[in-house]
From TrEMBL:
Protein name, UniProt field: Exo-1,4-beta-D-glucosaminidase
Domain Beta-mannosidase-like galactose-binding per the UniProt entry, residue ranges: 79-200
Alphabetized UniProt keyword annotations: Glycosidase, Hydrolase, Signal
SUPFAM superfamilies: (Trans)glycosidases, beta-Galactosidase/glucuronidase domain, Galactose-binding domain-like
Signal peptide (UniProt feature, chain positions): 1-25
Sequence ranges assigned to domain Glycoside hydrolase family 2 immunoglobulin-like beta-sandwich in this UniProt record: 248-357
Coiled coil (residue ranges): none
Methyltransferase in keyword set: no
Amino acid sequence: MRRHRSLIAGGLIFGVLGASLPACESTSGTPAETADARTDALDIITLRDGTHVIQNWRMQSSASLDVDGDVLSAPRFDDRTWLTVPARSTVMAGLVANGRYPDPNFSTNLRDSVDPADFKVPWWYRKEFVAPPAGTAGHTFLRFAGGVISRGELWVNGTKVSGVSGASGTDDIAGAYPRYEFEITHLLRPGRNAIAIKAMPADPFRDLTVSFLDWSPLAPDNNMGIWRDVSLVRTGPVSVANPRALPSLELPGLGRASLTIKAEVSNHGDTATETTVAAIITGADRPIRIQQRIALGPHETKTVTFAPETHAGLRLEHPRIWWPAQFGDQPLYELAMTVSADTSYGSDRATTQFGIRDVRSELTPQGYRRFLVNGKPFGVRGGGWASDLFLRPQPERLADELRYARDLGLNTIRMEGKEEDHELLELADRLGIMLLPGWECCTKWEKYSTWSEQDYRVAGASTLAEAQRMVNHPSVLGFFIGSDNAATARVEQTYIDALRAADFQAPIIPSAAAKSTPQLGASGMKMDGPYWWIPPHYWYEDKLGGAYGFASEVGSGPTIPELDSLRRFLTPTEIEDLWSKPNQAHYHLAKKEVFSKLAVFSTALANRYGAPKDQADFLRKAQLSNYEANRAQFEAFGRDFSDTANPATGVIYWMLNNAWPTLYWHLWDHNLATAGSYFGAKKALRPLHVQYSYDDRSIVVVNTGLEAKGGLTVRATAFAMNGTVLSDEKASAIVADANAAKRVLTLPAPSGATGTYLVRLLLSDGDGDGDGDASGREVDRNVYWLSTKADVLDYPQSTWWYTPTVSYADLTGLESLAPATVASSSKTFATGEENLATEVTLRNTSQVVALALRASLRQGRDGAEVVPVRWSDNYVTLWPGEAITLRADYRRSDLAGSIPHVQVSGFNVSP
């Protein structure tokens, strides 16, 4: 008898995923004892959690096969000509891993080297393994941590296990996200066994899958195939799954918390049984141990609850509270649950980590969505996440990217329908980065009028599966059930039912746009753009995407990498065309017509900074433009977060990173290199920060921490381009209130200057002048290049993607800067077994300002740029005699055996 159930019904997920597996028998027709036996076969060994994740698959197109699953899933079928692909590998990812195409990131290879017809037919995945010894009490399951894109068919040892219902024959495994479990105990044979999975062609407008729209080109295969773990699991007659700890935190005092513990316990046998369910919680001063006895009928699943009302140990005094990084620490607890049945087989075990925190949201009197974490108003400063275009699992890269987000000072990542796997959740928990997941826009996910009954089932199963995955993670801030649209009443109910069934405690938000749904009401969000270039002062206006309310996806569009990075994905001609042919469509821009050209950006660059003279001139001006645009966006929302009349409650920069190398929408580029876009944002997001306001010329101190900072001094100095001081203002004895912004000065309009001028802001700890002497320690510095002529926007002509600029600021005075000279010295030291840090001290030894100095770390004097690197600051500006020390943190291995070399360059400083 075949047993199958979707794991969303209270399924059995436990164990450590991704564990390495021992080599065993060959999976081809070659006998195991021969010298060429394959080493990727799976040997099931019964561990305490009974779980093994399949590490490698064999993969082949059905176009080259003339047999079906009954033959393909027979043990010893000869698959030696098939491709070997990693776990969690879509078809395209598998082909790329096998070198079947030239680098899809470079130039137009993705468009020119791939035949879309290859993905109009199903593809097969295959795996052989050795079955465990037969036992009277044991059960073996095949578990899918996510669906098969777009649909799947499962065969084991010549028998079809799924795909037996519905006209398509593939309805048992449908959609990207639902989790499934199939008992295959009755199908196993002693010795060699085989699995075959048939993945159907994907269409994002036909099925609830994962897709990319204007973020990048679509993956040629539409991400068809296996994209999450598939595991073989050995359990006893009773198993435990989905352990969850649901905290209730005392507010506002935070001195007490209570926990409710839940899990699903299942009897897989044909007879009734009793079992002891036990839980142990560690991470507090002493372990908390609780248990209870339950009875289960044949094949019955129960949700077991341990409540603080009946288990006093679940009431915690002085709990260790989890905070976002800017607010505090990130302590985690561990929950381990076991079931012990009255058989000789033993017990099953499930573990999870969790944090104690409280997240809520509310609408302000103005109708804006505002979040609160542990009772404290939480101003969201985030970016939109892009998964890898081919959905490849890349844990080290993922860790690098989240470290960048933490380094930037971002506190939130929004994931619009690209829900990463467990690694991202775990990293966010450890790094204190909040997450705003949700469903994607514009594909079948929001084409509600086209939904079939199966779509409703898949949508509910998808939501429950994701909620079960996220419920224990303190980093989850909320869930968007819609992106650009609002769900219908039935869709909304489907989502709410699934989230509640998983005990999802974070806020449920109806849409990322200004929409509402019948039960959840108004979203409190806005999605009014911009998505393309606009001048810095745009963000200070109370219009469209300006700094008020919660802007769920906004940004200033083009973000041009530095030359090292451009050379990694563009030809020399393509790089040259960026500045010389701005009206030409570029392949590494978006496919949407409005985002396919650099004309808007290039016109603004030429009018504001002066027409580029060559490639180098274009790139140095592009970095200044990206820096000022991104800094202004985050500074404006930071300033007005605590404005009671019109608060700026949150902003998501569009986007954080790229699925594929692009010339737009990122804070770091696809090669993990950082440029002006990164450091403009990082400057704005410093935890204690001084900034200039483009609208009213106010100088503002912003404190994003939960402790007030007193005894601060701000000095604001305006300079003409010849170095003349135009004004010099100072404010002392400043108290920067916790989690708030404060205006401390107003910069006078420049007198006797026209065109371009510079402003330097210095924030010091103490009553010193902030000029580097012993009387005050510099806490923050910020430099602006400004114009006596303002940018003028034509708001009546605004579109969904940008607001036209009809008159431009004059920053051409920067071109008149004389060359500056900078002395530098550096030292490198170990910061761990695998990591290094290099500190470089820069001193302006000339008589003119050195603008936007950039330090880059190289693999030797003439070597490639080292990436990723986390610089303490960059693109810094020094006046004559000033000095600054910058620090770079990186991996020793990324030097590729070379000696680290620091190259220094600047707007008016030759490399």
